[in-house]
Amino acid sequence: MSQEGGNGFMSIDGPFMRVMELVINLFLLNIFVIICSVPVITIGASFTALHHQLQRMSRNEDGYVVRDFFKDFASNFKVSTFTWLILLPVGVFLGIDLKIFSDGVSFPGAYKWLIIAFAVIYLMGLVYVFPVLARYETTPKLAIKNAYAMSLFALPKTIIMIVLFVLPWVGAMYIANFILACFLFGISFPAYINVFLYKKTFETFEKKQKEAFKGTPEEDITESENHEDEH
Fold first, then answer.
1. Separation of alpha carbons 19 and 225, rounded Å
2. pTM confidence score
3. For residues 214 and 66, what is the distance between their CA atoms, to the nearest angstrom?
4. Does residue 138 contact residue 149 with C-beta atoms inside 8 Å?
5. Which domain holds residue 122?
6. Is there a domain that residue 163 lies in?
7. Which of 8, 31, 59, 137 would bridge 224 by S-S if both were Cys, CB 3.0 to 4.6 A apart?
8. What pLDDT, on a 0 to 100 scale, did the predictor assign at position 28?
9. Structural domain contains residue 41
């Protein structure tokens, strides 16, 4: 088979090179998110930048992952960090309780199931809030509100997204080889799959909830100048 021309399997625009580009980009994004999340308070900005890059990649748009990731990290830092600081204390509380449960400490059954239920509800918003921040120019309050609205709007997809989000890290707790996999692709790869799950939800939700998105002038959710409309 000839490799010349633009349609060959090994050509610059061929399937092999596209797959390799995707793998390299997902690896780089995974490393960037891990490094930029080390201070903990920057996790929100890291995940928002990640999802903006993944949304761009899902539309097959050209770009430079290194430059664009850090550009998005800086431009969304304020709103993403404020949003994350609202969610962080709740996550810490739930995480501590779940860790105590896993250590075998005895608690009343009702309390245990209540914490598990709250953890699921927390994750329902968490898997959407950073994609919302990546797609829209909004406020922390509206980002969280609309994250939960979207999660309920497409509940079956939301459950799948939660499973994809937590599965690598649960696996790393019990299987040593999963630790390396998480370091290489444990954040970016599940998030990339999730883009295709929530992408249609966003489009449908925008059409059905157009008036709700408009709100009052100070509560308006609009497309960010560096988001989809620009492309």
1. 29
2. 0.85
3. 33
4. no
5. 15-224
6. yes
7. 137
8. 96
9. yes
pLDDT score, position 219? 46
- What number of other Cβ atoms are within 10 A of residue 164's Cβ? 17
List the structure tokens of 62: 């050209």
Q: How far apart are the first and last CA of the chain?
A: 36
Q: Cα torsion for 58, 63, 68, 72, to the nearest 10°?
A: -40
Backbone angles phi, psi at 222, to 5 degrees: -125, 160
In angstroms, the CA 94 to CA 88 distance is 10
Average pLDDT of the residues in 164-177: 85
Domain count, the chain: 1
- How far apart are alpha carbons 75 and 161 in whole angstroms? 26
Q: Could you give phi then psi for residue 216, rounded to 5 degrees?
A: -85, 165
Handedness of CA 128, 131, 133, 135 (dihedral sign): negative
Q: Is 60 left (phi over 0), alpha (psi -120 to 50) or beta?
A: left
- On whether residue 178 sits in a domain, the answer given is yes
Higher pLDDT, 127 or 62: 127
Max CA pair span of the chain: 68
pLDDT of residue 104: 75
DSSP string, 122-141: HHHHHHHHHHHHHHEE--HH
Identity at 217, one-letter amino acid code? P
R_g (Cα) of the chain, nearest Å: 19
In the block, which residue shows the tokens 């799950």? 197
